[in-house]
Amino acid sequence: PYANRLKKQITINIDGSRIYGDTNDTSDYNYSAASGLKTWDQTKFNNVGWDDLTVNNTSDVLDDVNSYTGKLSLDATSKNTVSTGLTNNYNITYTDSFAINKADLTYVAKGTRVYGEANSTSGEDYSFTFDGLKNGQTIDGDKLTVTNNTSIQANAGSNQTVASASGFNTSGSTGFKESNYNISTVEADNK
Fold it and tell me: Are 111 and 163 in contact (CB under 8 A)?
């Protein structure tokens, strides 16, 4: 018989995600045994009570869309819960991965022009409404470039069309980065 049994090394990964600009959750994470777990301990692993653990998430609400490591960790009480749940047979190393995903941003661009004249491409000739900007960010619509698909032959009056904009990163925006958003436009009355 062995006089002294040594603990087995195990790596547990914590992973999670959230939308850019949202606050961090403390409990909605996934856990997996990346290596080292003995097959007969899988039931113990599954029954640890993962939903009750507290994860410290150091990502900032305005961290850019990306995949990160080193942002997630368990508090001491939660680490003890895991160790006890695995009957203290393992030396546990934790790794983590945390994804910040793009936020949805929609906008409407409304403009007017005289019948038979070309559509303007200057953002100064349109009014913009944005829905989905995070944390007080703004976009200066005057500095955008607009593509308006209203036909030059369209009759005077309201026309339901989509005017799309570009140049968001150069719009003099406050804290805004296009890469953090899924940007789409919706139809508007362009006259």
Answer: yes
- The count of C-alpha atoms lying within 13 angstroms of the C-alpha of 159, restricted to the half-sphere facing its C-beta, is 21
Q: How far apart are CA 89 and CA 91, in angstroms?
A: 7
Q: Which residue has the tokens 């139809």?
A: 187
Give the CA diameter of the chain.
96
**Which residue, among 20, 12, 115, 17, has the nearest Cα to 73 in the 3D structure?**
12
Which residues is 7 bridged to in the sheet?
A: none
d(CA 20, CA 176): 11
Angle at 162 between CA 119 and CA 180, to 5 degrees: 110
Q: 67-120 pLDDT, tens per residue?
A: 999 999 999 999 999 999 998 899 999 999 999 999 999 999 888 888 888 888
SS3 content of the chain, % helix, strand, coil (to 5): 15, 40, 45
Higher pLDDT residue, 9 or 170?
9
pLDDT at 15 over 50: yes
C-alpha distance from residue 155 to each of 92, 117, 158, 161 (Å) = 71, 11, 8, 13
User: What's the pLDDT tens digit per position in 117-151?
Assistant: 888 888 889 989 999 999 889 898 888 988 887 77
